[in-house]
Structures are given as structure tokens and as C-alpha cells.
Specification:
The protein is α/β, with parallel strands linked by helices. Helix content is 36%, strand content 30%. The longest helix is centred in the last third of the chain and has 18 residues. It is globular and about 55 Å long.
Amino acid sequence: MSDKKLLEVKNLHVDVEDKQILHGVNLEIGKGETHVLMGPNGTGKSTLGYALMGNPRYTVREGEIWFDGKNITEEAVNERAKAGIFLSFQNPLEVPGVTLSSFIRNALEQKTGKRIRLWEFKKELKKAMEVLDMDESYAERDLNVGFSGGEKKKAEILQLLMLKPSLAILDETDSGLDVDAVRTVSAGIEEYQKNCKGSLLIITHSTKILESLTVDYTHVMVEGKIIETGDASLVDKINESGFAEYEAK
């Protein structure tokens, strides 16, 4: 854990299509910390992820988002990505005509502002694909086109390992995956946690993906507010008793 704040969310109120979803969210994530966000369906967890990334469909009505000491509340998505924020999606988009390899290489060059030598890039890509047990042929396939659900999620974790963001927001990364795929994706996240030393905000219903990870803080969101924060033991408590006691508050 770290006492240096990477992300500060202050009294965040967010609307989606004129409907208020978040009602004053406060959250702090330190450098190198892993946070888990849990809660019932439809409570605003994904909305928080999109708002942090700057998706224009999500309108900040009140509050601020600070990242690495800078107010980014009004920053565009690409500027937040360059600053080191990464968001995985529940349902990754297909991008015909753009290979997975070229997509990642371009994203790296956009982030660093430098050209990347092809042979160095391919060496790093191969190493990351081995962690995820991905066939090298996937690198030259169009991004997510014809990929299974598990392959799409692996492709996103591959991007995570290559881009090495300061903050990775993983939104239901384990959704719809079988046991083997969850284990592989979890290994990729563990690799990021250990070797990239970045911070994680893991939005999830299932806790299978957390079993091999070190969790510093767990947050419970209900009706657009974080109503309880605890350590990793809070995950076990939720596994045993669900969200009923929080929904009743």
C-alpha cells in the first residue's frame, strides 16, 4: 500500500442521458494499491469506470476527478489514456481492419510520443502473450473480430501488460468466462500487479478473479454511493451474506 494518492474522486455526481446515476462518490486510490468495487446490479459501478475514463456519454454534474495531482474532470478520453488510465470493457468492441498487434503498438506510441522499434515491440508482445497462453497468430488478427468472449478478455489483459498504465480499471473482466479462462486472465492481472507496479480498480461480481491477487481495499456501492469500505476480508463477508444488509441501509 502507498500513502501517495494516485486517484482522488471528490463528491462525484454523474448523469447518463439526463438520469443521475452517481450521487456523490468519494474514492482515493494510492500508487500501487489494488481496490475492489462490488455491489448489486445497476448500482453505478460501471458508470464510475466510464466517468473516470472520460466517456462523453457520462456527464459530471458535480465533483472532481484528480489523477496524479492534476484535475482531469474536463480532460478528454485520449488525454486520460496518455496520462496512464486504462479501462477494460465488459463487452470489448470489434475493430475490423486493425490488427491486435498494430492497435497495441499505435497505443504505445501515442502514450509515449515515440516511435517503437518493431523487433523490440514483437519481443515484448511475445512475452506478454506467453503469460496469457495466447497463440501468437492472434497478434495479426483483426482486433476482437471473431474472438470468443475469453479471447477478447485475454486481448484486453494483453493490452494492459503492454501499455503498463498507472491505473487500470477492470470492469467485469471475468464476466462470462469459464474456470480456465478466469485463471489465465487472473494470471495476467497478477503479472501486472507484481511487475508493472500499477494501481488497480477491479469492478466485479465474482471473486474468483481475486483469489491470487493482493487486495488492499474493498468498496461496496449501492444506489450510486460507496456506503462501506474495508480490507480484503470484506470480500469474504459479501461472499457469505451477499448485499442484502447494504441494500437495507
